[in-house]
């Protein structure tokens, strides 16, 4: 194993031990590890994109393959495999046969609820969030707890497209405090209704629409 | 699918062919429209204050990207005009040229947009923009003191960037 990787393994072990001493509660430590991973992930994604030069993945299947084959290889030096796809392609398992984080590690009885590698789930979640995918990442198999391999379940919750920051393009200055910026809409509604022989005075209040609904309820023709 | 090996470091910069001040200015935006960096080398005319200028630039790029993706004759899957697209999805324009300047643009899937405005005879700057993205990763992203989403204040980044941009023809 390269000396660099050993240092990383030992450093990570020291962090986990320190967290256990400071926080004492195993669930808190799991949460902290996940949060650390998330903070790493949101930065790691840029390094991954710059070094690998890949462009956007077409679908979630390609994303998962990218994480397992390119991502894990680039940062941990091991390749993972992807399996157990569900019917609509939004949930899969990433399986690590070889996990450099856990070399030299044995969990004592006092830490039985600990997900030692929880930083990895945070990293994946953080990195995917930066490419507009909200995911949920959980451990289904953990060799330190007696299973035969490390298996992460990655579930795509939703794709969040970037928002056009419309609200930041207009800011009312102090000199225009009485201005109804969107008043054109009230005029549009008034003009359109006038053409249907309904005369209203409209100003920019939600009451208008409620009033219309109350006074002119929808009637069936038969 | 071609995978890049983990040992490959960021692409080496294209060979500089001319020295001198050919760049006018540069912007770096993140996915939320925050202007992370604005650098100016040669800009004789200022028409807007900085905030408005950045908003205008971001709005322009957003609209141009949306328009070029919707007009794409080769792509079968097109949303309705105005529907926000994921960064990097669909085709993306990479430069436009007028008689007085050329604007080169690159967007990463993580939403980082790099814009370089140069003189009109500049060639294709896509490789240069990729190299600048590599510089951003090395000096800004990897800096633990930098908080993502805030304007970049790194001296090292500014120096390296300045040096590199001046060497682009």
UniProtKB/TrEMBL annotation, chain A:
Pfam families: TRAPP. InterPro entries: Bet3 (IPR016721), NO_sig/Golgi_transp_ligand-bd (IPR024096), TRAPP_component (IPR007194). Keywords: Endoplasmic reticulum, ER-Golgi transport, Golgi apparatus, Transport. It is found in: Endoplasmic reticulum; Golgi apparatus, cis-Golgi network. CDD domains: TRAPPC3_bet3. The keyword Phosphoprotein does not apply. Its main location: endoplasmic reticulum. PANTHER family: TRAFFICKING PROTEIN PARTICLE COMPLEX SUBUNIT 3. Belongs to the TRAPP small subunits family. BET3 subfamily. This is Trafficking protein particle complex subunit.
UniProtKB/TrEMBL annotation, chain B:
GO terms for cellular component: endoplasmic reticulum; Golgi apparatus; TRAPP complex. Its main location: endoplasmic reticulum. The keyword Endoplasmic reticulum applies. GO terms for biological process: endoplasmic reticulum to Golgi vesicle-mediated transport. It is found in: Endoplasmic reticulum; Golgi apparatus, cis-Golgi network. Keywords: Endoplasmic reticulum, ER-Golgi transport, Golgi apparatus, Transport. InterPro entries: Longin-like_dom_sf, TRAPPC. Transmembrane segments: none annotated. Part of the multisubunit transport protein particle (TRAPP) complex. Belongs to the TRAPP small subunits family. BET5 subfamily. This is Trafficking protein particle complex subunit. It comes from Brassica cretica. The lineage of its organism: Eukaryota, Viridiplantae, Streptophyta, Embryophyta, Tracheophyta.
């Amino acid at each position: 194993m390269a000396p660099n990787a050993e240092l990383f393994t030992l450093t990570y072990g020291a962090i986990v031990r320190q967290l256990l001493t400071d926080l004492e509660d195993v669930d808190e430590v799991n949460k902290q590890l996940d949060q650390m991973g998330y903070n790493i992930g949101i930065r790691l994604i840029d390094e991954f994109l710059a070094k690998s030069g890949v462009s956007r993945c077409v679908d979630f299947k390609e994303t998962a393959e990218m994480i397992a084959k390119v991502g894990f290889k680039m940062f941990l030096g091991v390749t993972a495999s992807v399996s157990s796809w569900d019917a609509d392609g939004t949930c899969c398992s990433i399986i690590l046969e070889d996990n450099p984080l856990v070399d030299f590690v044995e969990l004592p009885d006092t830490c039985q609820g600990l997900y030692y590698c929880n930083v990895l789930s945070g990293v994946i979640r953080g990195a995917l969030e930066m490419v507009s995918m909200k995911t949920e990442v959980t451990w289904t198999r953990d060799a330190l707890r007696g299973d035969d391999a490390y298996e992460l379940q990655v579930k795509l919750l939703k794709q969040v497209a970037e928002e056009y920051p419309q609200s930041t393009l207009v800011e009312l200055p102090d000199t225009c405090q009485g201005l109804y910026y969107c008043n054109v809409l009230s005029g549009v509604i008034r003009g359109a209704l006038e053409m249907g022989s309904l005369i209203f005075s409209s100003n920019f209040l939600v009451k208008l629409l409620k009033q219309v609904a109350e006074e002119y309820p929808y009637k069936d023709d038969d | 699918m071609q995978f890049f090996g983990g040992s490959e470091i960021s692409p080496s910069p294209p060979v500089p062919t001319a020295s001198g001040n050919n760049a006018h200015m540069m912007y770096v935006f993140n996915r939320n429209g925050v202007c992370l960096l604005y650098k100016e080398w040669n800009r004789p005319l200022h028409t807007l204050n900085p905030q408005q200028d950045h908003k205008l630039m971001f709005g322009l790029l957003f609209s141009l990207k949306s328009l070029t993706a919707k007009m794409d004759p080769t792509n079968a899957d097109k949303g309705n005009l105005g529907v926000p697209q994921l960064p990097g999805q669909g085709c993306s324009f990479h430069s436009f040229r007028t008689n007085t300047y050329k604007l080169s643009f690159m967007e990463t899937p993580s939403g980082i947009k790099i814009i370089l405005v140069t003189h009109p005879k500049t060639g294709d700057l896509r490789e240069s923009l990729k190299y600048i993205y590599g510089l951003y990763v090395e000096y800004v992203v990897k800096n633990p003191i930098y908080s993502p989403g805030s304007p970049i204040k790194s001296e090292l980044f500014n120096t390296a960037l300045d040096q590199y941009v001046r060497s682009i023809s």
